[in-house]
Amino acid sequence: MIEYRGPEERFVTLAEGRKTYHSFSFGPHYDPANVGFASLVAFNDERLPQGTGYDDHPHGDVEIVTWVLSGVLRHTSGVGSGVVGPGQVQRLSAGSGVVHSEVSDSDAETRFLQAWVRPDSPGTPPDYRAADVPTSDGWSVVAGAGGAVPIGTAGAALLVARPPAGHRLTLPDSPRLHVFVAAGTAMLGERLLEPGDAARLLDEGGRPLTVETDAELVVWSFAAYGM
User: Average model confidence (pLDDT) for the chain?
Assistant: First the structure.
């Protein structure tokens, strides 16, 4: 089964100059039929003008993975801080509790994708990691087993590819896949996926993906069914 989700189906939050697109129920936005996918409980597409963002706020028992598409994001927390830009990933394991802030540190808009994933074990010590991720026209494992940063959710992995037009990719052979088009276009099945489009695949791993225009593709892969 493949469930396609267009960009217009996402919830939108406008606050203090920033804009956030939510793929799942988030904060005041609630749809009981759309609260997550496998271990993924949030997938947010953030747009932060210079100097805007999120002041200190708490989290607990969630793996927060951030992939920067453009601009620069400054992250500050008691367990680790850093400045990340395109081609870099950061992971904050909130565990037993952590306070952090995220602010655009770019002259232009900072855009990043942020996923929240349920960990296997609650109450672990908080931890922060950041890393460079060389990307190519094939899949690069950004987070999870074998990736640039580990996460506390077994069988979960974030993959990114930047393929040119005409390139053909094969999706991971996993029970559940969340595919997102950050830029460009690609054919999945009989559907042309455009920027902001997503697809949720159940028992459809290994499908081909044909790139129509130069693209940046982001996939969350889950070896277990979860929700």
Answer: 95
Residue 73 lies in a domain: yes
Residue pLDDT, tens place only, 44-96: 999 999 989 999 999 999 999 999 999 999 999 999 999 999 999 999 999 99
Residue 71 lies inside a defined structural domain of this protein: yes
pLDDT digits (tens, 9 = 90+) for 90-99: 999 999 999 9
Closest CA relative to residue 123, chosen from 149, 99, 151, 94: 94
pLDDT of residue 146: 86
Q: How many independent structural domains does the chain possess?
A: 1
Q: Is the pLDDT of residue 14 over 70?
A: yes
Phi then psi for 8, rounded to 5 degrees?
-70, -15
Instruction: With respect to residue 227, please indicate whether it lies within any of the assigned structural domains.
Output: no
| CATH number for the domain harbouring residue 211 | 2.60.120.10
Can you name the residues that pair with 82 across neighbouring β-strands? 75
d(Cα 215, Cα 30) in Å, to the nearest integer? Answer: 31
Q: What's the confidence (pLDDT) of residue 227?
A: 45
> Range of 195's domain?
2-222
Among 111, 11, 127, 157, smallest CA distance to 59 is for 127
Q: Is the pTM above the cut of 0.90?
A: yes
Residue 65 lies in a domain: yes
Residue 140 φ/ψ region, left for φ over 0, alpha for ψ in the -120 to 50 degree band, beta for the rest: beta
